[in-house]
């Protein structure tokens, strides 16, 4: 996800149109610990997992990277993102971004994810997930990874958020059930393809509660998440969970493991809200640490004279959201600690 500011009007329009039903999203925890030696990580999706592919974006401009590594380095965050935590969980270094691959830095896998992209085309001129998988396939055809490399590898997939925000902007959301079904169908095609290329463990992120994103919760003046938008995520996740279960059943083993960004985001946000109710100096977890001084600007914007057009919170390490779309390192770390019980299924 990157650069999302759907117009307020479209959100109101959506609120009027919506009549989704909610069902609980649960994730099965199925503990099964095995060796992780020689593991590589291959990453597909958007800015939530991109660690440096989108060179001409705010991810390479201040203040991104201010917490880690201390200077802008290609993450849509002040520091580490979920990819980095998953890599450290697997005891490997975060894989090299595809853009910077060379003959000697591909041993930990490759990160194909590209900020702003989606399952379908978005407004960003970057590779959608299909094209990212094409690049992976090309590397395999060049014999850069052997069959046994791939068998002990893990894939991480995070996409769909930008498809929804883009659809909010361009009107495709009007027929939400149709849009959701074609989106989940395409995700299913993508997941099957990654598996057929030889990967046996694939972590699939469920969609985050999009109604909590500061770009959208601004319509509640950052007092609460926008429930009708969260209901879209709930429905999407329900459909995606079904697809994943069917795929695992077809294959006869648990190749696909879901990581529940929906409930983990909500749980961390609620915990921070509770802390704040006891200490009002803490930052509202629905407010971004970094944002444009007004609607014309965003985190990282500078004017023609080069002066900053954004504000930065005092303590990024206390925030949940870094900017209006992305969690801070603090946010990701807290989310990761909740996801660990699911990640165990990958090892
Ligand atoms: C490959 O990239 C790494 C950084 O990821 C760099 O340190 C190294 O010098 C590069 N090697 C070659 C052979 O270009
Ligand atoms: C992904 O992008 C490619 C190339 O730009 C395009 O041909 C393809 O239709 C896109 N795939 C989807 C599912 O939108
Ligand atoms: C996606 O965008 C590419 C150009 O980036 C274009 O060639 C392709 O036709 C588009 N595909 C769809 C399905 O819109
Ligand atoms: C609207 O956005 C969706 C999701 O990004 C995309 O699949 C669709 O092709 C877009 N439609 C138009 C008319 O641009
Ligand atoms: C309240 O939070 C601030 C950080 O914003 C911290 O410095 C302070 O010690 C906290 N106060 C209490 C009573 O916990």
UniProtKB/TrEMBL annotation:
PANTHER family the UniProt entry points to: OS04G0650200 PROTEIN, OSJNBB0059K02.9 PROTEIN
Pfam family, one: Lipase_GDSL
GO biological process, any: lipid catabolic process
GO molecular function: hydrolase activity, acting on ester bonds
Classification via Gene3D superfamilies: SGNH hydrolase (3.40.50.1110)
Coiled-coil portions: none
Protein name as it appears in the record: GDSL esterase/lipase
Family, as annotated: Belongs to the 'GDSL' lipolytic enzyme family.
Signal sequence coordinates: 1-24
Matching SUPFAM superfamilies: SGNH hydrolase
The keyword Glycoprotein belongs to this UniProt entry's keyword annotation: no
Organism, as annotated: Psophocarpus tetragonolobus
Keywords: Hydrolase, Lipid degradation, Lipid metabolism, Signal
Highest taxon above the source species: Eukaryota
């Amino acid at each position: 996800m990157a650069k999302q500011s759907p117009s307020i009007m479209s959100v109101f329009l959506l609120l009027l149109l919506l009549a989704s039903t909610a069902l609980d999203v649960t994730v099965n925890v199925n503990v099964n610990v095995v060796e992780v030696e020689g593991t590589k990580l291959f990453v597909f999706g958007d800015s939530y997992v991109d660690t440096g592919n989108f060179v001409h974006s705010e991810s390479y401009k201040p203040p991104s990277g201010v917490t880690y590594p201390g200077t802008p380095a290609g993450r849509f965050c002040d520091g580490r993102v979920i990819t980095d935590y998953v890599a450290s969980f697997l005891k490997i270094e975060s894989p090299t971004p595809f853009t910077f691959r060379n003959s000697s830095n591909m041993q930990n896998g490759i990160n194909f994810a590209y900020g702003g992209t989606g399952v379908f085309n978005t407004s960003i001129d970057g590779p959608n997930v299909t094209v990212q998988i094409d690049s992976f396939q090309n590397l395999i055809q060049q014999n850069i990874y052997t069959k046994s490399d791939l068998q002990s590898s893990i894939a991480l997939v995070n996409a769909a958020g930008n498809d929804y925000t883009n659809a909010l902007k361009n009107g495709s959301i009007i027929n939400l059930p149709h849009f959701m079904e074609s989106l989940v169908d395409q995700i299913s095609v993508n997941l099957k393809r990654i598996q057929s290329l030889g990967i046996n463990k694939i972590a699939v992120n469920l969609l985050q509660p999009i109604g909590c994103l500061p770009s959208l919760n601004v319509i509640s003046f950052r007092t609460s998440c926008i429930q009708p938008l969260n209901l879209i995520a709930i429905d999407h996740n329900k459909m995606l969970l079904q697809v994943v279960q069917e795929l695992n059943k077809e294959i006869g083993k648990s190749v696909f493991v879901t990581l529940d960004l929906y409930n983990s985001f909500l749980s961390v946000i609620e915990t921070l809200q509770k802390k704040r109710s006891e200490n009002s100096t803490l930052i509202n977890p629905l407010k971004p640490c970094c944002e444009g001084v007004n609607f014309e600007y965003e985190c990282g914007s500078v004017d023609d004279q080069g002066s900053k057009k954004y504000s930065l919170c005092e303590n990024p390490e206390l925030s949940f959201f870094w900017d209006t779309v992305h969690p801070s390192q603090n946010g990701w770390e807290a989310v990761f600690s909740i996801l660990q019980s699911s990640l165990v299924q990958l090892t």
